[in-house]
Design brief:
The chain is an alpha/beta fold and 679 residues long. It has 23 helices and 19 strands. Helix 10 crosses helix 22, helix 12 crosses helix 17 and helix 18 runs parallel beside helix 19. The radius of gyration is 26 Å and the shape is globular. It starts with a helix and ends with a helix.
């Protein structure tokens, strides 16, 4: 099978559901805090006509829980940092208490950034973090990455200048010397070519860690420790990817010593998921069903143990929210849609949303002809084969992420009623109603459904297009035609001729840090003052929690609220979910503690530990504490059906890697599927 099938699937994504190009490629105190409600947002929204959506017959069968009515969502308006009018606010205008709490951490102190980078450089430590990290932590990590790259560029420029002027050494400017003083490093300290900080989705976190640890890929300054900021299955996955790429000797440390769980990943770790898989494995292995085959497509956001157990029951391949559509289309076409049973899990919403997508195609028989399906979706698929695929797609019914689960009905109603002029983004894990709005919008390139990376890329593209378009827009002012979707018409704005792009952020609020940085980079690069992007959080403005008082009952924080919960486990009962409570177990204090422990280990090894002579005892204590931060290793030394459990758990990722590179299922995976009827 050639790669044409996968490329055609990409064409389907980009032509028919334009923003489904998202599917194309890559891309210490943990105790609960007390909760307090704050005032609601003071901003108002102009009522607009209800957005048209696909009829409810195409909604996925799973719905989010109801919630109180929410009329106006909090938001952050992002401007170019070069705009002198709003320079005092660092180019940001938060609207509503939740947004104010988010924005407060987006521009951390330079001294904090410089100090952390100095520690990472001095001790060769790399940090990989998920997009859903605490907004304060993300702001600092983005600053560290930017500063490292800025220092690298300035050193390279200085080297070029020295060569041009044939000088042995050009003195550093005073600003650069001050930066090195605050980092507690000499100005001659080597700066790695690859960033020591990466913020990415769960799969890319492992790839970045490998680059940091590789002497070749890192530019000669390989990291000797990795701090992984995420939930436990992420640190476990990062360690496994590093081990398979020759970096198994580099330790990976979690931010907390306690278990950092994930409601979605843990829904696949019980006996129920195993029994669900065995139902299809037994059916495919029975003599009466010798022609029926089964493939388990498991979401990457699961533990290594889940992957290993699954692979021992059914042939298994992992997927991401970016490539899941490609995966099921190619597997079905390659194995035969009428004979291949595809079992998708554990994310129920994502699986049901995939069914909704196929239903949307099959319901439009006049527009989605066999010819169009072959041209734009897959060369080996027709309406009949898609119907077989749809009928043979089985979704685990009991798995969801608590963050996306809380996009309740009232949130969806507000999006439809109050924000019809906005672009709508939705992670594939959100409930069917929210997904449906974004899916309908994506048909006209007015929205996107996909992964966190896909959402970020969509926003970047829209802002880039608007920034490039503004010079001609100023030459040809608004002429009364229909306004751009996702933007506020000039007639509804003040005297300023700005164009505002509105984006509903249908995923975890922690993504806003990466969005702000990317949008401002684009606007600054184009020196564009006339475009602004409004990131709208589909949560209640009360979705915040009070900063916990200290032991004396006082609160020394200048900020009264931080993003978090107003009810339930990380979600607001007033509508929508603010942040993931598990991800927020990663914080700045934990990072500093880990860096200090790594520094102490190095000091003990070098004899500079300040331990009053008892170096071995001191080192053992530090090492014991660091071991508590290692990823879970439940599979070490275990075997399943005679195979090493870690190797078996890594196999589905290897199959996915092959598919991502070659656009077809590997021969090994195909043979395993074919052998099922012969067991």
């Amino acid at each position: 099978m050639s790669s044409a099938g996968s490329r055609s699937a990409s064409a389907f994504a980009s032509r028919s559901f334009p923003s489904l190009a998202s599917f194309r490629r890559d891309g210490d105190d943990d105790s609960p805090r007390r909760i307090s409600r704050t005032t609601t947002a003071t901003t108002t929204a102009t009522a607009t006509p209800t957005a048209t959506i696909i009829p409810r017959t195409y909604f996925s069968s799973v719905s989010a829980p109801p919630a109180q009515q929410v009329d106006v969502f909090p938001s952050i308006v992002i401007h170019s940092t070069l705009n002198a009018q709003i320079n005092d606010n660092n180019g940001l205008q938060p609207q509503g208490s939740f947004a104010e709490a988010q924005a407060a951490f987006l521009n951390p102190p330079k001294e904090t950034i410089r100090s952390l980078l100095g520690q990472l450089l001095k001790h060769n430590i790399g940090i990989v973090a998920h997009y859903y990290m605490d907004v304060e932590l993300q702001g600092i990590l983005h600053g560290v990455k930017r500063l490292q790259m800025d220092l690298l560029n300035r050193h390279q420029q200085q080297h070029q200048q020295q060569q041009q002027q044939q000088q042995q050494q050009i003195p550093l400017d005073e600003e650069l010397l001050e930066i090195y003083r605050q980092m507690d490093l000499p100005p001659t300290h080597a700066i790695p070519a690859h960033p020591l900080v990466a913020i990415a989705d769960s799969l890319a976190m492992g790839d970045h860690a490998v680059r940091m640890c590789s002497p070749v890929l890192s530019g000669g300054a390989a990291a000797s420790s990795i701090i992984c900021l995420g939930v436990d299955f992420m640190s476990e996955s990062v360690a496994a990817i590093m081990a398979r790429n020759g970096c198994g000797h580099v330790p990976v440390y979690r931010a907390a010593t306690r278990h950092i769980g994930c409601s979605l990943a843990e829904s696949a770790e019980g006996k129920g998921y195993e029994a669900w898989l065995r139902k299809f494995g037994d059916a495919s292995s029975s003599p009466s069903s010798s022609d029926k085959k089964a493939l388990h497509v498991v979401y990457i956001n699961t533990s290594l143990e889940t992957k290993a157990t699954s692979a021992s029951i059914l042939p298994t391949i992992t997927c991401t929210s970016s490539n899941v559509l490609q995966t099921i289309l190619q597997a079905s076409a390659q194995m035969g849609p009428d004979r291949l049973q595809i079992c998708y899990g554990p994310d129920t919403y994502m699986g049901e949303n995939l069914k909704s997508l196929l239903d949307a195609v099959l319901s439009h028989d006049e527009s989605w002809t066999d010819s169009r399906i072959r041209d734009e979706l897959h060369p080996l698929h027709t309406r009949e084969s898609l119907r077989h695929l749809r009928d043979n797609l089985h979704v685990y019914p009991h798995g969801n992420c608590i963050v996306h689960h809380m996009f309740g009905n009232s949130v969806v109603e507000t999006v439809s009623d109050k924000y019809a002029d906005a672009y709508v983004t939705a992670h594939l894990e959100v409930p069917g109603e929210m997904f449906q709005i974004a899916l309908e919008k994506s048909m006209n390139d007015e929205g996107v459904v996909g992964s966190t990376s896909n959402i970020l890329q969509f926003i970047e593209r829209k802002v880039e297009e608007a920034a490039k378009d503004m010079p001609s827009s100023r030459q040809h002012p608004h002429n009364g035609s229909q306004p751009h979707i996702g933007s506020t018409p000039q007639s509804q704005q003040s005297s300023s001729p700005k164009r505002r792009l509105k984006f509903i952020l249908g995923t975890e609020a922690g993504m806003v840090t990466s969005i702000v940085r990317s949008v401002q980079d684009i606007l600054d690069a184009h020196r564009c003052h006339d475009v602004e992007a409004e990131i709208i959080f589909p949560v209640s403005s009360e979705a915040v929690m009070g900063v916990e008082d200290d032991a004396e009952g006082t609160n020394d924080s200048s900020l009264g609220v931080v993003p978090g919960v107003a009810g339930g486990e990380g979600c607001s009962t007033a509508g929508g979910c603010a942040t993931c409570p598990f991800m927020k177990m990663n914080d700045l204090d934990a990072v500093h503690d880990l860096v200090d422990m790594i520094q102490s280990m190095r000091g003990a090894d070098d004899g500079n530990d300040g331990s009053d002579g008892d170096t071995n005892n001191y080192r053992n204590k530090v090492e014991l504490q660091l071991r508590k931060h290692l990823p879970p290793n439940r599979l070490k030394g275990k075997s399943i059906n005679g195979r090493d459990a870690i190797e078996l758990g890594s196999e589905p990722i290897v199959f996915m890697r092959h598919f991502m590179k070659n656009k077809v299922m590997s021969d090994d995976l195909v043979q395993r599927i074919e052998r099922m009827g012969q067991l």
